[in-house]
Amino acid sequence: MTTPLFLTPVFQERIWGGQKLKDLFGYSIPYERTGECWAVSAHPNGQSVIKSGPYEGKTLGELWTSRPELFRSQSAVFPLLTKILDASDDLSVQVHPDDEYAGIHENGELGKTECWYIVAADPGAEIIYGHEATSKEQLVQMVENGHWDEFLTKVPVKAGDFFYVPSGTIHAIGKGIVILETQQSSDTTYRVYDYDRKDKDGNSRELHLNKAIDVTTIPQSYQPQEYKVAQKEGLSVTTFVSNSFFTVEKWNISSLTHFQEQPKYIICSVLDGQGQLTLEDITYPLSKGDHFILPANFGPYQMDGQLELIISHE
């Protein structure tokens, strides 16, 4: 019988992390500065583990290899990575490569296109989202001279906002923001600026200016974001983005909702509320902070309760 795959996250210590992953989601976090919850990951730097059921104890990467029928994907590796980030301090200003550049320069790693759903934000919180340089020469000049105020584009944010961050985008998450990030399964980041901070050993963190300049999109332009919203009884679906990298949606469930069989595997993260998932008379409780995968050909099934979920798939 097909069952949902509930996952145990992996937590990562970060210089800019804090305690909000515990405060907001009730996670038992291992570090004073816990910055990242790798909630759904098959990346070698932090793999989620199946929490229960017939595949209990297996990593997501092991399951991807040994039971491909659960995913029915054409991808060679599990292509997506879902994180929750606690930016209790500013993240470094950074940029990510695309697949082609990463494949050549990062030992075959995927590139990193990502997107952010703002879970929580302190009053006045901002992100860096893009830059003001109009040519490579101007970009190099601004970076080398440290003209960060003129170079970086800052955007105020609030809970419920969404941002698509394609590879080549200069960006940074600001202090006081918690996000759910859906991204390609990559751990490649090129730092451009880190506020002259020191790591726990008193050393300046490495910058990657040559590679960053190579991959940054110049000039940077953004299309106005328009989201599709579909309603049916008990369910509102907001589609934030759908492209060759991923589809990301928000599901708001307010009462019993029936779903047809799910032909693709889908990744589900419960951001708020409580409820339940039912398949063939078996009920699985759902709570804030749960992450699970519905395998390919899952269903028909039902969800009930008061739930806010972020859903993603290839």
Automatic annotation (TrEMBL):
<keyword id="KW-0413">Isomerase</keyword>
<comment type="similarity">
    <text>Belongs to the mannose-6-phosphate isomerase type 1 family.</text>
</comment>
<feature type="active site">
    <location>
        <position position="191"/>
    </location>
</feature>
<dbReference type="InterPro" id="IPR051804">
    <property type="entry name" value="Carb_Metab_Reg_Kinase/Isom"/>
</dbReference>
<dbReference type="GO" id="GO:0008270">
    <property type="term" value="F:zinc ion binding"/>
</dbReference>
<dbReference type="InterPro" id="IPR011051">
    <property type="entry name" value="RmlC_Cupin_sf"/>
</dbReference>
<dbReference type="InterPro" id="IPR001250">
    <property type="entry name" value="Man6P_Isoase-1"/>
</dbReference>
<dbReference type="InterPro" id="IPR049071">
    <property type="entry name" value="MPI_cupin_dom"/>
</dbReference>
<dbReference type="InterPro" id="IPR046457">
    <property type="entry name" value="PMI_typeI_cat"/>
</dbReference>
<keyword id="KW-0479">Metal-binding</keyword>
<dbReference type="Pfam" id="PF20511">
    <property type="entry name" value="PMI_typeI_cat"/>
</dbReference>
<feature type="binding site">
    <location>
        <position position="114"/>
    </location>
    <ligand>
        <name>Zn(2+)</name>
    </ligand>
</feature>
<feature type="binding site">
    <location>
        <position position="171"/>
    </location>
    <ligand>
        <name>Zn(2+)</name>
    </ligand>
</feature>
<protein>
    <recommendedName>
        <fullName>Mannose-6-phosphate isomerase</fullName>
        <ecNumber>5.3.1.8</ecNumber>
    </recommendedName>
</protein>
<feature type="domain" description="Phosphomannose isomerase type I catalytic">
    <location>
        <begin position="6"/>
        <end position="103"/>
    </location>
</feature>
<feature type="domain" description="Mannose-6-phosphate isomerase cupin">
    <location>
        <begin position="237"/>
        <end position="313"/>
    </location>
</feature>
<dbReference type="Pfam" id="PF21621">
    <property type="entry name" value="MPI_cupin_dom"/>
</dbReference>
<keyword id="KW-0862">Zinc</keyword>
<dbReference type="InterPro" id="IPR014628">
    <property type="entry name" value="Man6P_isomerase_Firm_short"/>
</dbReference>
<dbReference type="GO" id="GO:0005975">
    <property type="term" value="P:carbohydrate metabolic process"/>
</dbReference>
<dbReference type="GO" id="GO:0004476">
    <property type="term" value="F:mannose-6-phosphate isomerase activity"/>
</dbReference>
<dbReference type="InterPro" id="IPR014710">
    <property type="entry name" value="RmlC-like_jellyroll"/>
</dbReference>
<feature type="binding site">
    <location>
        <position position="96"/>
    </location>
    <ligand>
        <name>Zn(2+)</name>
    </ligand>
</feature>
